[in-house]
Design goal:
Length: 269
C-alpha cells in the first residue's frame, strides 16, 4: 500500500497532545471547535445513542449554514466542484458507462451526483441519504443543472439495510466520504446488505479515513479505521475488498476500497 502524500495516516486526532499542539498552531480555530463540540454534545444527548439520528442533526445544522460546507468542510464553490469532478473522473476512468445503474449512498447535495446523473441514462441514478435537509439541497442542484429529464431517484433513509431496493440491480454502488463519518456498526450493516443489490460483476467503492495507528474517532463526526478492519468486515459478509492504489495519487485525504461479490466457484455448475 503506497503512502499517500495527502493523508496523515499515523496522526491520532483524538489524543489530548495532538489537540493542544493543533490549538497552538491554529489559535483561530479554538473557539469554532469549542462551539462545535458543545453543539455536538447537545445533539448526542438528544439522539440518545442513535448515531443516525445524531448525524442527521449535524447535517441539519451544517446545511442551514452552508450546503457546500456540509458535504465537505470548506464553504467554497470551487472546492465543491473540484471534489465532485474528482469522484466522477475516477469512476469514468474505471469504465463508468451511461448504461450502468448506480446507487449513491450518502449522496449529499449531489456534489458528484449531478455529474453522474448527466452521464447516466435516465432513471439509472439512485441517491439515498439520511438527511432530508441535504436532499432538499440535492433537488436544488438538479434544478440548477437542468437535469429534470434524467429522472434520478432521491430517497431519505434511516438505515443501510437497503431493504426497499431490488436484488442484483446496481452495477456501481458508491459512497464518498460517508464511512469517514460512520461508526463500525453502520459500515457493518451496509456491507451485510450491499451484496444483495449488487448486479453480477458490479462493485461498491467507498472512501474512508485511514489510520495506520490506533483506530479512533473525533466528536463522533470523524472516524479513522485501519484498512484491514474494513477488509475483514467485507470478508465476514462474503465480499472481497481491494485497496485502490490509484486513488491515493489524487489530492484527497481519504483512501478508497472497492468491494466485489464473491468469485463464482468454478466447481459449481
Ligand atoms: C461528507 S458528505 C458527502 C456527500 C457526497 N457523498 C459527496 O461526496 O458530496 C456525507 C453524506 O453522507 C450522509 N450520510 C452519513 N451517514 C449516512 C448513512 N449512514 N446513510 C446514508 N447517508 C449517510 C450525510 O447525510 C451526508 O450527506
Amino acid at each position: 500500500m503506497p503512502p499517500s502524500p495527502f493523508s496523515r495516516s499515523w496522526t491520532d486526532r483524538s489524543r489530548p497532545g495532538y489537540k493542544v499542539r493543533y490549538a497552538v498552531r491554529h489559535p483561530e480555530r479554538v473557539v469554532p471547535y469549542v462551539r462545535r463540540a458543545g453543539r455536538d454534545l447537545w445533539l448526542r444527548l438528544r439522539s440518545r445513542g442513535d448515531h443516525v439520528a445524531y448525524y442527521r442533526g449535524v447535517m441539519a445544522s451544517d446545511t442551514a449554514r452552508s450546503p457546500e460546507a456540509a458535504v465537505g468542510g470548506a464553504p467554497s464553490r470551487e472546492r465543491w466542484l473540484a471534489i465532485g469532478r474528482m469522484q466522477f473522473d475516477y469512476l469514468v476512468g474505471h469504465g463508468l458507462r451511461p448504461e450502468d445503474r448506480m446507487l449513491e449512498i450518502g449522496c449529499g447535495n449531489l456534489r458528484a451526483g449531478w455529474r453522474f446523473i448527466r452521464h447516466l441514462e435516465p432513471g439509472h441514478y439512485y441517491g439515498i441519504d439520511i438527511s432530508p435537509d441535504i436532499l432538499i439541497e440535492a433537488k436544488r442542484t438538479l434544478v440548477r443543472y437542468g437535469l429534470q429529464d434524467r429522472m434520478p431517484y432521491l430517497t431519505p433513509v434511516d438505515d443501510l439495510t437497503l431493504d426497499f431496493l431490488p436484488d442484483a440491480h446496481f452495477t456501481v454502488v458508491h459512497a464518498h466520504s460517508v464511512f469517514s463519518h460512520s461508526p463500525l456498526e453502520v459500515i457493518d450493516e451496509c456491507l451485510a446488505h450491499v451484496g444483495r443489490v449488487l448486479a453480477p460483476g458490479g462493485f461498491f467503492d467507498f472512501t474512508f479515513d485511514r489510520t495506520e495507528g490506533r483506530e479512533h474517532q473525533v466528536l463522533r463526526e470523524d472516524f479513522y479505521y485501519r484498512t484491514e478492519t474494513l477488509v475483514g468486515l467485507a470478508r465476514k459478509h462474503g465480499l472481497r475488498a481491494r485497496f485502490m492504489d490509484d486513488w491515493e495519487l489524487l489530492p484527497h485525504g481519504q483512501s478508497k476500497l472497492r468491494v466485489t461479490g464473491p468469485e463464482p466457484d468454478p466447481a459449481v455448475p
